[in-house]
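ping. complex inputs:
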Amino acid sequence: MKSITFTLNGRERSFDIEPDERFLDLLRRSGLTGTKCGCDNGMCGSCTVIVDGRAVNSCILFAFQVAGRIVETIEGIGDFDRPHPLQTAMADAGAVQCGYCTPGMVMAAKALLDQKPDAGEEDFRRHLDGNLCRCTGYVKIRDALLSCSAGARAES
Amino acid sequence: MKKRNFKVVNKPLRKIDAMTLALGKPSYVGDLKPRDALIIKMLTSPHAHARITSIDISEAEQMPGVHAVLYYGNVPRIVHTTAGQGYPEPSPYDTFMFDSKMRFVGDRVAAVAAETEKIAEAALKAIKVEYEVLPAVLHIEDAMKEGAPVIHDEPEARAVIPVPYDKDRNMAAKVDMDIGEFEKGMAEADATVDHRFYNHYGQHCPVEPHVSMAWVDREDRIIITTSTQVPFHCRRIVAQTLGIPVRRVRVIKPRIGGGFGAKQEIVLEDVVAMMALRTRKPVYWEYTRKEEFISARTRHPMLMRIRIGAKRDGTITALGLDCLSNTGWNGSQGLTVVCNCGSKVLPLYRCEHIHFNGTVVYTNLPAGGAYRGYGATQAAFALECAMDEVAEKIGMDPLEFRAMNHIKSGDTSPIFRALGEGREGVDQAITSCELARCIKAGAREIGWRKRKPHSDKKGRFRRGLGMACLMQGSAIPEIDMGAATLKMNEDGSFNLLLGATDLGTGSDTVLAQIAAETLGTDLEQIIVYSSDTDMTPFDVGAYASSTTYLSGQAVQNVAEKVRKQILKVGAEMLDRKPSEVTVQDSKVVEKNGEGQVSFSEIALYSMYNTNQFQIGDISSKIVHHSPPPFAAHFAEVEVDTLTGRVQLIKYVAAADCGTPIHPKLAEGQVEGAVMNGITYAMTEQYLFNDKGRMTNPGFGEYKLFTLRDLPEMKTILVPSYEKTGPYGAKSIAEIGINGPMPAIGNAIYNACGVRLRSGPFTAEKVWQGLNGNLPEVKSE
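pong. complex structure:
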């Protein structure tokens, strides 16, 4: 057992971890279950979180690797009274069917928009290539994400 | 179509759970896992067909942190089916919780419940097993050959309804239907086609794999929380498998991370229930993605022979389909899936002489199960490709050929009566069909007029257009039942308790819309709870495209009953007769006058003032029709003739689902189903080694499309009004998945003249076709 400290959703937090513990498992056993597990090997993107501004698959990240870093999870970016615009857009576009992939999609898209607020369709296509959805066919997800880009907002 | 003024129905309101899920609130089974839950892991068979000659669990049992080990020697041996279907099930009883006979690579050997995953995995390694390896059936066509190994040689295996079942010949089911004189029809034809098609293995790939947990409560009841489409069937089958009364089992369905049919099956729940009983602790089991591919369920692969005869004027003289279906190691849904190959596809075209046979065989490969489309997907591939082939032979445009022959409003088909689900079907006439408009709208969108024969195309990159017409059903008539309970609260809100199972489709929202529309209130006033076998009334569950049509009618009925109660109380409060008042905007208002009382005032009055009673009721519903939704799909592809690579440029799906209760969700059902069908057609495939082991059980090697692969996609909802449905609605969830195989297959042919009769449509196959050495159609 060893202890690590990192910034989790804006607050500095310390956790005791196993040396081979996955970051996804640490989050989920700490009650942050918004980050999902869909494949265990970095192929589906359901476990996407943002570490130091980059979207990463938390199922193939060791917990010790986030020591000293800044981590954002789905729980940290919005709530019922103040949802993140991406969360609102996903809900309103009909992009949430079973919803299991949604937190990962939102976090992946947020990482892109934080870097590139006017991201276009090609940017989203490339950046979300690691996020699987089996319900929606991606059409409404694409519409939701694009509506959050500064480019789209400027046009409308 | 009459214009109707709906207030809640037919509006794209926000799906009621969308924000909860987008915020990542704890919603799914895995999010609700108790901290002290024991973790279950399963040791599985490395052999496709074997008998356990010795098994020693003692070392595993004694490991610190291990609470129980289950295997065939210490659990009840009760034969059952894993298929989540009505009772008595049309699927054979051929499965045990554990058995000493292994029937596929991935079959259950022994389960461990331990304090951590690591301990559980270490314990699996400590179980010593010796096998006698048996010859295996690894190809669909070998199953019924003379001298083939018998997969279900146990005495208990049997069919529980009167249908053909011959386990000694590995035959899990068989169905025949002949209408008219098929051979005569073929002889009358000016042109005929007779071809073999193969539908390959595929998996549902819900992003949430199967997951279940259970504990025993203080009253000694087993509480199962599980990712299921069929909570009530689950309760019944778990009780049966454990040999305990139904009353001792409660099944709770929280939010589900997708199902598509995979979760219409008892895959984990018997073991979690048994483990909870054995350990008296909360237990938790989730499949890895690898287990999901191998040990959950798949689409039944099928070898098909399709025969069509037509006259030069376009009349179809004969239609014949023979399906050889691979149900794998157990017979789950085998009979009913193959029945649907006939009943949900062949009525699409008018024809006097029809032949249909479905034969379902066991093999030592992963088991088939329910999968969106449910047989219609398989048959639509063969039929719709063959329709193009026969159209070419008689020199007709394939669109004109279909438009001339397809079933229309007012028509019936003898198939509806002849072929049900494991028994005779139910006669019906088509009461709503806008397929002609679907074809027109889709053709316009894809630019069908510019289509040229493949022989006119030159150059390395060649584009082609293809189409397919589709139908499905809406619920299983006179078999499926859905029910709903509705009760009123002080503030004029309502609890809607549903047995129907929202697995991500949005059915909770759709059913709440139907309730709100009927009650004359807003969607926000409906609090939905689904599905919990202790709390909600029965529903067969989410399958057979039934929820909107069937459960929707149960909801409409109960809401009508509750509205009457509200009108009575409101009238009493206004000193009027019930006939002199009506509901409007969450109020009871006088038809001629100023008086009004709000729903909240009515609820308070009925609870606290005079003649107190609970405003509320329960309703259940069976249906006598299964009105088909219809669709026309169009695909445009570009084939690289140098490499054989196929790129899907554009896909158009025009669908008639009656009134779309929630247009955005209806579009979402089409888009999701179509995309699933596209990846099945383009990339998804099971690879097996020569010992029957799947070699690509992961998303790295089993490719699903992502946003990056999304082609231009257009969904067109062509409304009709189905008078037997709630507010004119029919189903929409399944039909879309049936189109991509034939539409893309036809487009590839139109681009480059290569006719692919098995998927996926890889560059390799197209290239072989272009070079004249396409291998014969065969199974994996």
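Chain A is about 35% helix and 15% strand.
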